[in-house]
Amino acid sequence: MKLYLAFILLLPLMGGIFNALLGRTLPRRVGEVVACGVIWSAFACAVLAFAGFNGPVRVEFGSWLAAFEFQAPIALYLDQLSLSLTLMITFVCGLIHLYSVGYMQDDPAHARYFALLNIFVFAMLVLVLAENLPLLYLGWEGVGFCSYALIGFWYTEEQNATAGRKAFITTRIGDTAFGIAIVWMYQLSGSVSITHLNTMGTLIPAAVVTTLGLLLLAGASGKSAQLPLSVWLPDAMAGPTPVSAQIHAATMVTAGVYLLARMFPLIGGSGTVRAAIALTGGITAFYAATCACCQRDLKRILAYSTISQIGYMVLGVGAGALTGAAFHLLTHAFFKALLFLGAGCAITALHHRQDIFRMGGLRAKLPAVYWPFLAGALCLAGFPLTGGFFSKDAILAGVAAQGGPLYGGLLLLGLITAFLTSFYTFRMVFVVFHGEQKNPLPPGGGGLGRGGSDNSAANILHPPPHPLPSREGEHLELPKIMTLALVPLALLGLCGGMLNLPSYLGHQGILDGFLGSIPGFGGGEKASQGGEIVLQIVAAILSLTGLGLAWFRYTGSRRAEALAREEAGLPGAGFLLNGWRLDNLYGALIINPFKYVARFFWKQGDEAGIDGALDGLARFIARLGGLPAGWCTGRVATSLFGLAGGVCVVLAYLVWVTLP
Amino acid sequence: MIVPLEHILLLDGLLFFLGMGGLLAWRANLIMMLVCIEVMLNAVMLAFVGGSARWGSADGQLFAIFIMALTSAEVSLALAMVVYLHRRRKTVDTDQFSEMKG
Amino acid sequence: MEQTLFYILAGVAVIGTILAITEKHPVHAILYLVTSLFSIAVIFYLLMAPLVAAFEVILYAGAIMVLFLFVIMMLDLGHPEKGVSPHWREWLPALALVGVSAACLAIVIVARHGSTASPAAASLPIREVARHLFQDHGLAVELISLQLLFALVGALYLGRQK
Amino acid sequence: MTKADMMALMPLIILAGGSVLVLLAGAVRPGGYLYGLAITVVVSALAWTIAVPATVVMPGLAITPFARFFAVFLDSAGLVALLMATGYNKRRGIVGEEYPATLLFALAGMGAACAASDLLMLFLGLEAFTFAFYLLVAIERDSVRGGEAGLKYLLNGTLSAAVLAMGIALVYCSRGTLRLSELARQPASLEPLFLAGVCLILVGLAFKLSLVPAHLWTPDVYQGAPAPVTALLSTASKGASVAAVLLILPLMAGWRGGHDILWCLSLATMVCGNLAALVQTSIKRLLAWSSVAQMGYVALAFVALPAGGGRAAIFYVVAYAAAGLASFGAVSILSDGSDRDAIEQYRGLGYRNPLAGAVLAVALFSLAGIPPAAGFMAKFAVFSAALRAGEIALAMVGVLTALVAVFFYLRVVVALYMRPVDGAEAAARRLTGSEALALAIPTLVTVVMGVYPSPLLDLLARIMG
Amino acid sequence: MMADLHLLTVLVFFPLAGCLLMLPAWKCPAAARSLALGVMSGELLLALWLYASWQGLAALKPALPGYLLVEDAPWISAFGIRYTLGLDGLSLLMVMLTAFSFCIALAVSWRAVGEKVGLFLALLLAMETGIMGVFLALDLALFYLFWEVMLIPMFFLIGIWGHGRRIYSTVKFFLFTMFGSLLMLLAIIALHLLHARQSGVTTFGLFELIATPLPAGTQLWLFAAFFLAFAIKFPLFPLHTWLPDAHTDAPTAGSVILAGLLLKTGSYGLIRFGYPLFPQAAQTLTPLIYTLAIAGIIYASLVAFAQEDMKRLIAYSSIGHMGYVAIGIAAWEPVALSGSIIQMANHGVTTGALFAMVGMLDERAHTREIGAFGGLWGKIPLWSFFFLIFSMASVGLPGLNNFVGEFLVLAGTFTKAPLAAGLAFVGIVLTLVYMVRLVQEVVFQVERRPLPLADLDRREICVLAVLALLVVWMGVHPAPLLELIHGPVRLLTGGVP
Question: Cβ C101–B1 below 8 Å, yes or no?
Answer without folding.
Answer: no
